[in-house]
Design goal:
Strand 5 and strand 6 form a beta hairpin. Strands 1, 2, 3, 4, 5, 6, 7, 8, 9 and 10 form a 10-stranded mixed beta sheet that branches. Helix 3 crosses helix 4. The mean pLDDT is about 90. This protein has about 230 residues and is an alpha/beta fold.
C-alpha cells in the first residue's frame, strides 16, 4: 500500500444531504416587470433586501430595510455584514438581473472582447451567489427579471430568467431547490407557479407546494418546513 504523507491521518466525515440548509428555504423567483417580485420579498420573515435598483419605489408603502449596492466590493461587504447578523431572517437579492448588469459594467474595461467579460461575470458571480445561498439559518430569495425567448426553428415561445450573457441564466436554476415563476393571471392576481408548464420552467423539490401558490414567502416556508419535519 501507499504510505506517503498524502494518505495519512485524513478523517472522513459522512454527512446527510438532508442536513444541508435544513433550517431554511432558498429560492429563485423570476417574473416580468410589475409582477410583484420585490413585494414577494417583503412577505418573508424579517427580510432585508440587497438591491442594485435605486429607490425600490414598489415598496415605499412597506417598511423593509434594504442595502443599495453599486459594485462587487459593496456586494461582498453586504454578505460579510449579513452572514452573522441576528437582525434578519431572510436575505433577498433583488434583482440578480440588475446586480449582474452592475457587475458586467465593472468587468468590461478589463477585456478587449466583451464576450470574455460575460464569461468572467458568470465565474465571479456564481461563487458569490452560492455564498449567500449557503448562509446557515437564513432564508434566501434571489429575484430575477423574465425574458420571452422564441426558438428560431420551432417558433416555440418560452419565458426564461433574464441575465446578461448566456451562462448565468443556464446555471442559476441548478443553484436552488425552489424555483418559482411569478405571474399575473387575467384578473390581475399575482400567483407563484411552482411546477413547469409548456412555456416556463419552475420546480419545487420539497414536494410541499401546490402547482400554483399565493405569493407569500412566509406561508411557503411554513409549508416546506412542515413537510421536512414529517419526513425527519
Amino acid at each position: 500500500g501507499d504510505t506517503s504523507p498524502l494518505f495519512e491521518n485524513i478523517m472522513i466525515k459522512i454527512k446527510k444531504t438532508s442536513d444541508i440548509n435544513a433550517d431554511s428555504v432558498k429560492c429563485i423567483v423570476y417574473g416580468g416587470a410589475g409582477t410583484g417580485k420585490t413585494r414577494f420579498c417583503a412577505t418573508a420573515p424579517r427580510p432585508i433586501i440587497i438591491s442594485a435598483e435605486s429607490g425600490l419605489l414598489s415598496l415605499s408603502d412597506v417598511n423593509v430595510d434594504y442595502i443599495e449596492i453599486k459594485s462587487s466590493k459593496e456586494l461582498d461587504a453586504a454578505y460579510r455584514m449579513l452572514k452573522d447578523s441576528d437582525d434578519y431572517d431572510t436575505i433577498c437579492l433583488d434583482s440578480l438581473s440588475e446586480i449582474a448588469e452592475v457587475l458586467i459594467e465593472e468587468l468590461k474595461p478589463n477585456y478587449k472582447d466583451p464576450r470574455q467579460a460575460y464569461g468572467a461575470l458568470a465565474s465571479s458571480m456564481m461563487p458569490m451567489l452560492r455564498r449567500f445561498r449557503d448562509i446557515q439559518g437564513k432564508h434566501t430569495i434571489f429575484t430575477a427579471k423574465m425574458v420571452v425567448v422564441q426558438d428560431e426553428e420551432s417558433g416555440k415561445v418560452t419565458q426564461e430568467i433574464m441575465m446578461p450573457g448566456r451562462l448565468l441564466g443556464h446555471q442559476l436554476p441548478y443553484m436552488v431547490d425552489e424555483l418559482f415563476h411569478l405571474k399575473v393571471d387575467r384578473k390581475g392576481k399575482a400567483m407563484l407557479q411552482t411546477a413547469p408548464d409548456r412555456t416556463s420552467f419552475a420546480k419545487d423539490r420539497s414536494g410541499a407546494l401546490l402547482p400554483l401558490e399565493e405569493p407569500d414567502f412566509t406561508a411557503i416556508i411554513n409549508k416546506i418546513m412542515d413537510k421536512r419535519k414529517k419526513l425527519a
